[in-house]
Design brief:
The protein is an alpha/beta fold and 170 residues long. It has helices spanning 16-26, 61-71, 89-98, 110-119, 146-157, and strands at residues 9-13, 31-35, 46-52, 72-82, 123-128, 159-164. Helix 2 crosses helix 4 (110-119). The longest helix is centred in the last third of the chain and has 12 residues, at 146-157.
Length: 170
């Protein structure tokens, strides 16, 4: 068992380089990784799932929501951090500058994201991501006031979304 109480974990990412890094960083932990655009076949029965700044990268959010719903046990929860959305001024600026080079889909509206996961069968909830200190390296030197823009991004616009699959009623 992992020192953090992780009995076993699974992760996927469409970028094979990210998978290589994840395997290296996992060390001896019982973690399994695959390069994939969606939940790999046979991966199911999960109590919890997590993602951090993944939703904005997905072209087919409804397919992602359905795949996650199917991979969780009844009562399972998917936690997703999302700061890159259409009401985050700093990320709207970043997205416009990078949409073509990174082949990004259009920015999602948070209300639309919630609606997609509700349509997939999830009970949904949201909160601001609890952030304390934000590293200043790379965030405060691009011009006057930019550090305050980054703090606003982390404190006001970076959200923690909770998508829960209802438990089975017996």
């Amino acid at each position: 068992m992992d020192q953090s109480g992780i009995a076993e974990g699974f992760g996927y990412d469409p970028a094979s380089g990210a998978i290589k890094d994840a395997r290296r960083l996992a060390g001896r932990r019982p973690l399994h990784f695959e390069a994939a655009d969606t939940v790999p076949a046979g991966w199911d029965g999960f109590d919890a799932a997590f993602s951090h700044e993944v939703l904005y990268l997905l072209d087919d959010l409804p397919a992602h929501a359905r795949a996650l719903f199917g991979s969780l046990v009844p009562g399972g929860v998917y936690y997703a951090v999302m700061g890159v959305h259409n009401t985050s001024p700093l990320m709207v600026e970043w997205h416009e500058a990078n949409i073509e080079e990174l082949h990004l889909p259009q920015l999602y509206d948070i209300d639309d994201v919630i609606a997609v996961f509700q349509a997939a069968g999830f009970d949904t909830a949201a909160s601001r991501l609890a952030v304390r200190f934000v590293p200043t390296a790379g965030h405060g030197h691009q011009g006057r006031g930019r550090l305050l823009d980054w703090l606003s991004y982390y404190y006001e616009h970076k959200l923690l979304l909770r998508f829960a699959r209802a438990p089975e009623i017996t």
